[in-house]
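Let's study today's protein:

:::
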Amino acid sequence: MTAEPKWEDVSLEGAFDLHVHAGPDTRPRWYSALEMAERARNAGMSGFVLKNHNWETATLAAEVRDRFPDLLVVGGIVLNRATGGFDPSRVMQALAAGGRLVWLPTVNGCGECEHLSRAGALPVVDEQGEIVAPLRRIFHAIASADAVLATGHISAAEVPVVLRTARQDGVRRFVLNHPEIPFLQFPIELQADVQGMGAIIEHCYPRPESTSGFNGIAAETRAIGIRSVVLATDLGRPDLPDPFEGFKRFIAAMTSRGFTAAEISAMTRDTPLRLVNETEHPRPD
């Protein structure tokens, strides 16, 4: 392991954060979406994806783009109860408004709810091991828009069923969200399986309670291969670093673990931009 550069000296020039939380929201956030955009522009970033557990962000992203046309600000919808659950019409509205990502349930995901012993889960797979019927219509809508399907906080058992079925329904763009997060902790074998099915693995800034931390993320990234990995932050909570400091700390940590500037750029700029860009194929040739 090489010496870790000072995080303050890390450049975010060209970087694109695939996973960030900003206000307005039902919980405190470091910045509003407009403040995020201003800071991202000042940092020289390409843009970011706005995620919210409680309402769609496609329209908010469009408003931010109007104010900051030099940034690519992307939104979508999370299929939680607060957003209508598995209501295809809600998804189609978000996609029609320019949304590029559809996340499966997060706060209502089986992975999170089972880990926290919390009620309110929305299973994506039925008792027969098949995708619940309304999701098939949603998969077709995602495919028609060539948008991104992200796994959210569903369980490990649900992930392969989702990817196999969504591929059959025409979806081409997939993200396995933060497999390192403590309430999911997806094994490397599962990550390799979904990578083989075309998914991009999204690693996010590790939480304080993470058991693997940067070392685990670095090892899993090498095992999967940088061409199939994105580094993002999933930041916005005021009890964690702000998204810009966190992104810089993440890059500094990965640099000290042997990743080159070109590899970092691929994971923080090239791959996430290709993933959300509807004019490009989600995976390199």
Observations:
- The CA atoms of residues 175 and 280 lie 16 Å apart.
- The domain at 7-276 is CATH 3.20.20.140 (TIM Barrel).
- The beta strands are 16-20, 47-50, 72-74, 76-78, 101-103, 148-150, 173-177, 199-204, 229-232.
- The first strand starts at residue 16 and ends at 20.
